[in-house]
Amino acid sequence: MTEYEKYKVVVSDRAVKMLGTHIRFIAQVHKEAATAKKKQITAALHSLSHMPQRFPYFEETYIPSNKYHKMFIEKWYLVLYQIQDKTVYIEYILDCRKDYNWLIH
């Protein structure tokens, strides 16, 4: 098995707040489901410490090319992040069921 370089993963305050909003919403209906979802999302975010380039770039008209990588978690969550040197900066954790036109304008 090949050993890959490890990247530091930094989650922005904005992304932490976005994740908290999603988890609190789920917890209103089912606390155990919210706990499980948080663990699942957190594990996916930490997986970016290995080969974060494996996910494609986020391409939208109003977003500069090759600025963000995108990672989908299950079918509902979109994570946008940047890679600089050996650090992954997670900027957004979006619920794909919502309208995020504000992001691309």
Short description:
With about 100 residues, the chain is α+β, with helices and mostly antiparallel strands. The protein is about 35% helix and about 25% strand. Strands 1-4-3-2 form a four-stranded mixed sheet.
Structural commentary:
The protein has helices spanning 13-29, 31-46, 101-104; strands at residues 8-11, 69-73, 77-84, 87-95. The protein is of the alpha+beta class and 105 residues long. The protein has one domain: 2-Layer Sandwich (YaeB-like fold), CATH 3.30.2310.20. InterPro entries: RelE/ParE_toxin (IPR007712), RelE/ParE_toxin_dom_sf (IPR035093). Keywords: Toxin-antitoxin system. It comes from Anaerostipes rhamnosivorans.
